[in-house]
Amino acid sequence: MRVARRLAHTPPLQGLLGEETTPGPSASDEQLLQALRQTLATYQHPVGTCRMGQADDPEAVVSATGAVHGLENLYVIDASVMPSLPSANPNLTTMAIAEHCAATLLLRIV
Hints:
Blueprint: H1 2-8, H2 13-16, H3 29-39, H4 90-109
């Protein structure tokens, strides 16, 4: 929080941000810690419930094209196919996976 405060007081951020409201610009380190503990939360992005991988991998559910192992014409193409959570928000990764799988499926159809 101290680093974020210092950054907020440097150009160009200083001109874009309003006044700190919580816990307030004069809050002590103890008050900062208390505010952090009271407001800290996690943001869940469930992935990996239908893990993508080779058919011989016992933890893999779908192939690299999203095809469900052992079934015909059933595909899973969403964030659940990621074997692990990416280090950034998974939205763009999910769209890239969907585009890859869709393109692969279209190539098979055409």
